[in-house]
Design goal:
Structural class: alpha/beta
Largest sheet: 9 strands, mixed
Strand content: 25-35%
Distance between the termini: 33 Å
Order of helices and strands: EHHEHEHEHEHHEHEHEEHH
Length: 232
Amino acid sequence: MTTVNILSGGAAQGLVRGLGDAFKTQTGFGIDGEFGAVGIMADKLRATTPADLVILTQSLLARLAEEKLVVSSSIADVGRVETALAVRNRDPKVAVKTEADLREVLRAADAIYVPDTKASTAGQHVAKVLDQLGIAYELASRLKIFPNGATAMRELATSAATRPIGCTQATEIIATDGIALSGSLPPGCELVTMYTAGVTTRAAHPKEAAALIALLTGADRRELRQRAGFAG
């Protein structure tokens, strides 16, 4: 089967997976590609990895358009995603309403599962929040860092730790079996990120890539986006 190739932030993986059948019915194409830390996905595109479209943060996609790697007129917002907390299904959810609550919850965890703290949106934010709370050094040995949020959440689901917790984007939490969305980060620590899609300038299948973007962003798919963790 001919496929449309994607380079995407991990935040969109569940949503894209949910559209596979509809896209195949509409175009006859399958969907293939890579999902991971947005910085790494952008660098793959710059390194000429074949891709028909990209789904990355709004700011990063704008830069790629300036670099003539994405067709500016094709760019469309998919939706906003918040960075949130996750726990295993068998563990009690945590309530975090203030920075002090978050500091206490993180200190109580014996393992903290997060995505790449240098190349991923959520991972960079986790590192920033730990610094902001003054506990980065204290908790450094408890951080379990993985290439992307989806991998981090799968590892959390099977963690043998006594009191593990995870922090990544809500979409990646919702898409992972064995864990539950525990709650948002408190005021002053929150992060909501707009994800945006665009057709690449080197697309082998630009028409089908545009059709997939229309599916991702269409008003008739709003409920699917919401179930996957997107807002707006």
